[in-house]
Amino acid sequence: MADFQRSAPDAKGHLRKGPGLWVKLRLDPFLLILIFAIMSFGLLVLYSGSGASDAAVQRQSIRYGVALLVVIFITQMNLRHVQRWIPLVYIAGLLLLLAVLFFGVGAKGAQRWLELPGLPRFQPSEMMKLAVPLMVSWYLGSRPRPPSLAHVFVAILLVAIPVLLIAKQPDLGTALLVGSSGVFVIFFAGLLWRYLIAAMVIGAAGMPLLWMGMREYQKQRVLTFLDPESDPLGAGWNIIQSKIAIGSGGINGKGWLQGTQSHLDFLPETHTDFIVAVLAEEFGLMGVCLLLALYFLVLLRGLVIAGSAAHPFDRMLAASLTLTFFVYVVVNIGMVSGLLPVVGVPLPMVSYGGTSAVTLMASLGLLMSIHARRPQRT
Amino acid sequence: MPWLKMDSQRQEVSQFKARLWWALLLIVLVFVGLISRLIYLQVIQHEHYVTQSDNNRQQLQALAPTRGLIYDTNGVLLAGNRASHSLTLVPERLIKGHKGIDSMLTELAEVVTIDQDDIKRFKRRLNQPRRPFSPVTLRFQLNPTEIAQITVNQHRLPGVRIVPELVRYYPMDDGFVHALGYVGRINDRELAKLDSVNYSATHHVGKLGVERFYENELHGTVGHQTVETNARGRVLQVLERFEPVPGKDITLFLNAQLQQAAVKLLEGKRGAIVAIDPSTGGVLAMASAPTYGANQFVTGISNANYQALRNSDDLPLFNRALRGRYPPASTVKPVIALAGMDTGLVPRNYSLWDPGYYQLTEGGRFYRDWKEGGHGRVDMHKSIVESVDTYYYAIAHLMGNDPMTKYLAKFGFGQVTIADQPEATKAVLPTKQWKRINRNASWFPGDSLNLGIGQGFLSATPTQIASMTMVLANKGQWHQVRMIKAINGQAVTKVSDIGRNDPKQPIDIKLKRNSDWDGVHNAMIDVMHGAKGTGRRSGANSSYKMAGKTGTAQVLGIKQDSTYDADKIAERFRDHGLYIGWAPVNNPKIAIAVIIENGGGGSSAAAPLARKLFDLYVLEPKPEVKSEDNVGGS
Prior knowledge:
The structure holds 2 protein chains of 2 kinds.
Chain A: H1 2-5, H2 7-17, H3 21-25, H4 29-49, H5 54-76, H6 79-82, H7 86-103, H8 124-141, H9 149-167, H10 172-188, H11 193-205, H12 207-213, H13 216-226, H14 237-249, H15 260-263, H16 275-308, H17 312-336, H18 355-372
Helix pairs in contact in A: 4-5, 4-16, 5-18, 7-8, 7-9, 8-9, 8-10, 8-17, 8-18, 9-10, 10-17, 14-16, 16-17, 16-18, 17-18
Chain B: H1 2-44, H2 46-57, E1 58-63, E2 70-71, E3 77-89, H3 101-109, H4 116-127, E4 136-139, H5 144-152, E5 160-169, H6 177-180, E6 183-185, H7 188-193, E7 204-206, H8 209-213, H9 215-219, E8 223-229, E9 235-242, E10 250-252, H10 256-265, E11 271-276, E12 283-289, H11 295-298, H12 303-311, H13 320-323, H14 333-343, E13 351-354, E14 357-359, E15 366-368, E16 376-379, H15 380-385, H16 389-399, H17 401-410, H18 432-439, H19 445-452, H20 462-473, E17 484-487, E18 490-491, H21 515-529, H22 536-539, E19 547-553, H23 566-572, E20 576-583, E21 590-596, H24 602-605, H25 607-619
Parallel strand pairs in B: 2-10
Antiparallel strand pairs in B: 1-8, 2-3, 3-4, 3-5, 6-7, 8-9, 10-17, 11-12, 11-21, 13-16, 14-15, 17-18, 19-20, 20-21
Helix pairs in contact in B: 10-25, 14-16, 14-17, 14-21, 16-19
């Protein structure tokens, strides 16, 4: 914690030495090392979770490479110049979400992808993971703080519209992430506590309405979450099996590639959303705690960056992105360990998958970019 | 006022930092919560989940023992096992579980032939109590093309499995079923009675005959293995294995070549042949015609085929050798004669003048001899050689019921004489008491007359008649009549040797005068070799001597056929032809009983068949059998 209190003298130190390589590249070595550490651990687990598939590890490594390029690309951008494009990106994202609703493709009753001629298949909702916090930060950053109720209302609309569109696909996990990223911005903009508490009360009261609006399979997921044993071979299978995997891992785990649950196909989606169960089974409590510690350091670094940022936009965005990262971790591990309902949220930098890895890395890139333009006394 | 702006900015920054602290607090609390959850799962509940994990991947599977083989007396395989592939469904592993069964059946029907019968029986099996995750059979005996088809489409058929198993196979099928019986799928009723542990992997059980009687010996003991499986139930690795103990191999007295010959002789007829080795009591041949294939019953006969067998007028499913109740007719005359002499009720030199009929009282009912005009002066010898009915009317009248039924019982009438054929019946030995109970009437002298010529209320199965022949050939010595010769190479002389209950067997017959046996024997030799013997045509031109007795049973009460086919009815009114005999005379190797339903007289319908079998067996003591031994592959 001492870190962001010491931000000014720290900056002085940098100045004395002159701008180093990291400063020139506008990269944050601290975050970068953490990212590499998590990715390496992730690839190790992925190798096991994908059934010792070299191909999967290779593909994922390439994705990480691309994601790192994205990070460098973002850090090279001047946020001040980019800011004016934010509303445009946001509106484009909304239009694409509407397009998904009408022309989208997908599987298992969900319509999440857009296939535009000449472009690779992509998920507009992923784009909104960044567009929404950017948009809300931009909107509230250019208005007096703490925001007036009217401004908060507009900000809520800015969040709610894409969230509803995503939830309608339906993609509960992404909707949750997009929604929370927007809400965090509003929180860090200085929304008064009394409004916050009032919103929570209203939210709790709105739960039954939400229930009625849910799709059958979404209701089923919640019901299964509440009582997984009710359908052990059907809907409850995932939760039961992942709990068995985690529990049987014990403190030290069964050893790398030794997880019986995952290797014998009991565990579903071992390389994507449920990969932490593989980790917990093979590396035990120690392994999960190591990963959580790495995540905690990332979060801590994110908060430090937010605390040392000069502009309200930077502050809000950095804090929101950090806490969204936190939501990723909590929802995924909470889901796999049976604390939360099953929603499709990947484990950051560990789960197999391209789009979400790139978005995540882009948000970390934004964090680094914010860090790079922290106030430095000349 | 820039300082004021500065102030509000500073205030905003400090408020923001406060919120960062709140966020940090939230992060720490939630992480602590997550770690607590993990500690709960991985430390506190660790043992519980380890057990569940082991249960998940380790499965105890029962291993069916290999059913014991059945050999003929010369080591020819009569019942073996061959690999058969069954198409099974594991409902729990279907995508939609039990709800997905119907759609899976439709999908499977595109790949392999599945008819309504299969589906009906599959549904029935599905409703039987079963362990979760155990496969339910949809079809048996997949051919290689079908196996390939399913394997190719396996990826879109989750929950569908091809299960190989060893099933019973009868290499020489037709004609052996009435001797061996067969195995079939275990049904509900059997399931309730069988040892559920020992049969946990077994799908077949002996339904009839030897297969049923020696079920315990043939079945063996179940084994088990602990296997590692994936969630789809595929076995990945065997962790621990306890081999099943295969069933014991059984050797029968049955002579495959003799049996095949007997079946061939009966082709196109209705009737039965039972041959026994008089020196052991072992059944050398047991044929019943018409017959049917047993292999079709192993994997489940189609309803249409089964109905055809069931509804046939010729009753192919009916085991005539063990259950057919025929009047033994003149074949019992040697026994009646012995009864008369041994009781002393009929003098050994008794003779009478046969006018061709017998009357109980002057002017009463005529009891006719088969030969119009009669046989003239008849003594015991001639009465057997020429099968003179009048003589037996007379001595039956002299004796009455008791002496005759007593001696018939000594020869095995009215009892099950065979030890290891569970379907055998005891037919009817009509004592006075029997008639009182079953006919609610007293015994009349006329009943005795009918009994004296082996007709009337008396009935016997071909197996009983063959047993009687054995005892006659042995001069009163009994052996346990049985199919089994040895089990796992160890000779079995009585089924009690292997812990089974022996049937109540008559004691050996000791006549007051041993020479009476010779008298009867000589007469029976002359039946075959005498100038006037009823079986002389069948006994002619033989290099060995045989003894025999023909019989012709009148078909009295004919069941009304529903079809009024004149030819058929006429045919069904014809006499049954019977023959008993043994050969060679001095050292009997084979005692035989032949019954041909509606075949006419015994000397023409039955005796020639026996002669052919005598020749085959006596002249070629160690016959080579052409074996269709293709067991093992499929």
